[in-house]
Design brief:
This protein has 152 residues and is of the alpha/beta class. The chain has a single domain, classed as 6-pyruvoyl tetrahydropterin synthase/QueD (Tetrahydropterin Synthase, Chain A). 24% of the residues lie in helices and 33% in strands. The chain contains 3 helices and 6 strands. It has a 6-stranded mixed sheet, with helices on both faces. The radius of gyration is 16 Å and the shape is elongated. The mean pLDDT is 91.
Length: 152
């Protein structure tokens, strides 16, 4: 089994409702998503997938979807207020914890056809959470060619 990992940095803000601590307030992070994909076979170039292709495809999605965005739970009363003020808000079904952000990214990467093993989301230089993909225990799909996914 071969595995490759790509790290993609981005900035985001969030808050945790119903949390008794500092994170109940709006605040931001310089985060890093560390995405690992696997394959039993290599493509004709000798790769599981191309790092540059991962950066382009997954990195572009992170840039468009998460970077410099406020990640809030869908029920957060600030969602309509911030959107009304023209702010970029991602309304998540779950609390925007580091764990759920890792899962959010993993689910998207998997939906794009990557044989994702796990996503580790670094919230700070000393704190991270890892989400293992649902299909990580089965044989991965054949390798993608140059980071091509099902969409973009």
């Amino acid at each position: 089994m071969f595995r490759v990992t790509k790290e993609i940095a981005f900035c985001f803000g969030h808050r945790l409702m119903n949390y008794d601590g500092k994170c109940r307030n709006l605040h931001g992070h310089n985060g890093r998503a560390v995405i690992t994909v696997a394959g039993r076979e290599l493509d004709e170039s000798g790769m599981v997938t191309d790092f540059a292709g991962m950066r382009k495809h997954i990195g572009d999605w992170i840039d468009r979807t998460l970077d410099h965005r406020m990640l809030l739970q869908r029920d957060d009363p600030l969602v309509p207020l911030l959107r009304g003020a023209g702010e970029q808000v991602v309304a998540m079904d779950e609390h925007p914890t580091t764990e759920n952000i890792a899962k959010f990214i993993c689910d998207w990467v998997e939906s794009e056809g990557y044989a994702v093993v796990e996503v580790t989301m670094w919230e700070t230089p000393s704190s991270y959470a890892t989400y293992q993909a649902r299909g990580a225990t089965r044989d991965p799909a054949p390798p993608l060619r140059n980071g091509e996914g099902a969409g973009g």
